User: Fold this.
Amino acid sequence: MIRRPPRSTQGVSSAASDVYKRQNMVCVSTIILKDLSLTTNIGFYGPADVIPKEHVLDMSLKIDPSLVLIENDGMEFVFDYDPLVTTIDVLARDQHYHTQECLLTRIVKACAQYTEIEGVTLNLRKTPVLNNGSLGVEISVDKEYLEKVRIAL
Assistant:
C-alpha cells in the first residue's frame, strides 16, 4: 500500500494539479459582441407589413485561450476584432438582401478569413415583428466548418 501525506500538507501546486486531473478542466475563450445595430436593408415588404426598424447582431467567437490569458499587455498579444466588426458593417451596408441568411453567410465567410477564429455563433434578428417582438436566425459553425470555408475562399 502506498501512503500519501494528508492533503493539508501537500504543496499548493500539487493540490491544484490533483484538482485538474480529477475534473479534466478545459480552458475555453470566447469574444462576445452583443446588440450591434446594423444599418442594412433586408427583405421586401408590402404596404400593410410591419417593416423592421432595426437589425441586431450578436456574435460569439471561439479563439485560442493564449490570445486572452496574456502575460504582457499589448494588441500584438490578442485577437484584434475591430477589423472584423468594420467588415461586418461594410457587408451590412453594401447591398440589399432578400434574406437575413444571406448576410449571415457573408459574415461567416468574413470570420473564416481570420485563422485565430476557431468557431463562431451568429444571431441576427429584426425588430419589431408584429409591433413588439423580434425574429432572428442563429448559426453556429465549428473549426472544421471554418477550415472548409477557408479552403473555398
In short: The first helix runs from residue 12 to 23. The beta strands are 29-38, 41-42, 54-63, 96-97, 117-129, 133-141. The first strand starts at residue 29 and ends at 38.
